Amino acid sequence: MQPTNLQKDKLDLIDEIIHTEDQSTLNFLKSIFNDGTLKYPLSEEQKLILEEATEKYYPGKEPSFTWDEVNCIQCQLKGRYEYLQPHL
């Protein structure tokens, strides 16, 4: 288990990244984390799938959701799923 301070530092960094609007900051962070070697390299097929999904997402051709919307959808789906399950 990680020390509490390490966990808090990670969460604070994640929060700052999520709320930044500065593209140069994001580019800088990307360069730090991506030194050209991927821990889990993608196949060409996976890269193509990712590129196609990205092309649809950025111009708004695919829907996107806030975390609150995702949680709401999840709760709705969970409720439907539980309703369909037989009660033991």
Structure description:
67% of the residues lie in helices and 0% in strands. It is mainly α and 88 residues long. It is built from 4 helices and no strands. It has helices spanning 4-19, 23-33, 44-57, 67-84.
Describe, in short, the structure shown.
The chain is mainly α and 88 residues long. It has 4 helices and no strands.
Count of alpha/pi helices:
4
Secondary-structure element sequence?
HHHH
The major pleated sheet works out as: none
Give the proportion of residues in helices: 55-70%
**What Rg is obtained from the alpha carbons, in whole angstroms?**
19 Å
Structural class: mainly alpha
User: How many DSSP-defined strands?
Assistant: 0
Mean of pLDDT = 78
Distance between the termini: 37 Å
Point out poorly predicted stretches.
none
The shape is extended
Give the DSSP E fraction (strand runs of 2 or more residues): under 5%
Task: Give structural attributes.
mainly alpha
Structural topology:
Layout: H1 4-19, H2 23-33, H3 44-57, H4 67-84
